[in-house]
Task: structure prediction
Amino acid sequence: MARVYVTRTVHFNAAHRLHNPAKSDAWNRRTYGRCNNPNGHGHNYALEVTVAGEPDKDTGYVLDLSDLKRIVQDKIVDKCDHAHLNMDVDFMQGVLPSTEQFAIAIWRELENALPAGALHKIRLAETNNNSVEYFGE
Amino acid sequence: MARVYVTRTVHFNAAHRLHNPAKSDAWNRRTYGRCNNPNGHGHNYALEVTVAGEPDKDTGYVLDLSDLKRIVQDKIVDKCDHAHLNMDVDFMQGVLPSTEQFAIAIWRELENALPAGALHKIRLAETNNNSVEYFGE
Amino acid sequence: MARVYVTRTVHFNAAHRLHNPAKSDAWNRRTYGRCNNPNGHGHNYALEVTVAGEPDKDTGYVLDLSDLKRIVQDKIVDKCDHAHLNMDVDFMQGVLPSTEQFAIAIWRELENALPAGALHKIRLAETNNNSVEYFGE
Amino acid sequence: MARVYVTRTVHFNAAHRLHNPAKSDAWNRRTYGRCNNPNGHGHNYALEVTVAGEPDKDTGYVLDLSDLKRIVQDKIVDKCDHAHLNMDVDFMQGVLPSTEQFAIAIWRELENALPAGALHKIRLAETNNNSVEYFGE
Amino acid sequence: MARVYVTRTVHFNAAHRLHNPAKSDAWNRRTYGRCNNPNGHGHNYALEVTVAGEPDKDTGYVLDLSDLKRIVQDKIVDKCDHAHLNMDVDFMQGVLPSTEQFAIAIWRELENALPAGALHKIRLAETNNNSVEYFGE
Amino acid sequence: MARVYVTRTVHFNAAHRLHNPAKSDAWNRRTYGRCNNPNGHGHNYALEVTVAGEPDKDTGYVLDLSDLKRIVQDKIVDKCDHAHLNMDVDFMQGVLPSTEQFAIAIWRELENALPAGALHKIRLAETNNNSVEYFGE
Result:
């Protein structure tokens, strides 16, 4: 028995704005700086989805990557690509789109679409220099 | 005498929307697809600015890269980073922000801020897979 | 009037073998070394296709990248991806699949599928450290 | 006492074919799609080998990277580079060369060639977007 | 409650020399090879600093990345960039600048400058192919 | 007849110091800033050597890349890798090691070691964001 971690990376391009509507405009400007710009800004997001499990003895796969690719496409990329996270994405309504909160929201979307216990990690990079990881804990 | 080409790469994150206001909504949707999304989307832009010339016999530099860096920061990055190209950037007002038109606009901003004839090329990448080059011709 | 160069990068994974059937086995082994291995080897090829022209005054595009993407997909990627260049690819029959000859063959496939004079450059990378460029000259 | 993880990355170019000989041709085509192409396809594999341990108090090294490099070269790269995994590589005979199974096989080759307990992780990337990790568990 | 890991990557360029003054010149040459060159050599170091914690319910941040960036700049980059690690960097005096020891030294500099328990990992890459990770254990 | 441009990329790690001995210390500090640090600093240099020509009708190669690799190794990498450019490299004696001057010096070393007229371009990158190109003109 062997436990292998399999990662599929996808990319999408989206706009967002960091703004907490429960706080004053001054608080938002002070807290988020340019990320609070009213007209938004954007990123080429890189999303790595890692599933873990034992390779199937017939296929040699932990999970067929074309299945994983389709699920991530349906649940995340089709909704987020060329969209504004705050306004256009159903699962981000009412969620502050920091990279941290966005990664947690992606985990929740994917967790139930994958076999129970398969999802191991979400890594979400906003730029080449800034990224977050979430393990569902 | 030797002619050397020196390139400085900078990055900024911006939102934009492809929409030609002289055309119908239907034309815009058909032409630009998801890039016409009313709420915009965004990119991590990579901008390469290439200057050409003979290295100075005292400094060994074609141009001090810290000068080039400051000029690109002032003229382009400070205006475009964490901004919406259509709404927030002075030199993009009335310009359709395709990568092609954006690169031409950047050339025009930089050309006069640099020594005469120094600017050789603008390369602007919207994603790792899509980029344009402009030589001022 | 402005001339802009637009580049689309695509990736495909293929096997190949360097072997000149007009030469002896000894010549082939001496010339190509491990690249002559009878069972072939393979690469993740990165193909950059550059077209040049004036941005359209309505669309702001030199060429709609979704059209360019579709043409490159039909003419090159669908034929070469997950294939053996020597055995499976129609336009490589009788062509020694060095990176140089492969790039020239790709140029010939794309040249007539694109608007006259639009194709400017093919850049084909076999690895991160080895690549060729061809301008149709 | 400090535990440090040291990673060396190497690259090799190989062909492979996903095909389970215990199953029908129809099953193989349905399961593996283009990866079942009879003539094979190929990749530029990136292999990361991570060893863990306490830095030696004289050398400051967990393991001399030139030793690690030589072991990985002898045991893996010299056998796999410019080879067909299914046909040319001794330790892949009878192993279905999915990335998962290939990573497990590499772990087994390296584990005994390294000091006891030193090997911590194998990361094997088939493309920039697909990779697996194996920790020997 | 959710635990998220946030990573900021910074770059700096430094010279160093591997030389253990408690050992003979012959030992040093044999052990370090070209890394023992008396005049030193250098690298573009990439440093990844990972902090872990629960996103703040108001800001959505584990830690404001501009704070993390400032701390890493003050404690590490301003001291190491364009410097010689053996001669110019206060926290490397008396430390053999192997990547392992350098990463441990960076951990110690950052640990106390960050909120208690926030620092999770240091990843330090000397080249694209050689890197170490340290978790403070 | 077809003209193809073939590029081989190599990497080496070196220290250097920007200092013009014909000028005062004050001039050097003002001109070069931290690059004038007396103890030097360093880089992972990436060197791209491009040769141009017609593919040989027997081999399909413009130039055997293993020959090009060997020449670049002998003339440049073996001299510069893990060295201090100002003190250890014969062809850099008396040359101010700006990226511009270093690229010109590399051109001169390679030009005569390659077939007449074969060398087309040197591209030398000091970091991911700073690079120069020289065409021998």
